[in-house]
Write a structure and sequence with these properties.
mainly alpha, Helicase, Ruva Protein, domain 3, 3 helices, about 5% strand, DNA_Rcmb_RecR, Rcmb_RecR_Znf, metal ion binding, Rcmb_RecR
């Protein structure tokens, strides 16, 4: 973790570390996102978590064109 960012406790630190693994998200951005999620309502946080899980469960790459799709092969 970046030396300029103070360590956070337990679950928050884990969230920051996981967000930091995303492309284009550095340590400071990961911390800002984590703190935003802490201030967000339970409903907003659940909607984000559900959207992430849904895209992982319901989408795939088309075997013909490698487009992101929910059917294989895709309609393109």
């Amino acid at each position: 973790m970046d030396q300029n960012i103070p360590p956070a406790a337990g679950a928050v630190d884990r969230l920051i570390q996981e967000l930091n693994r995303l492309p284009g998200v550095g340590p400071k951005s990961a911390q800002r996102l984590a703190y935003h999620l802490l201030r967000a309502s339970d409903e907003q946080t659940k909607m984000l978590a559900d959207a992430i899980l849904s895209v992982k469960q319901k989408t795939k790459l088309c075997s013909a064109c490698f487009n992101i799709t929910d059917t294989d092969p895709c309609p393109i």
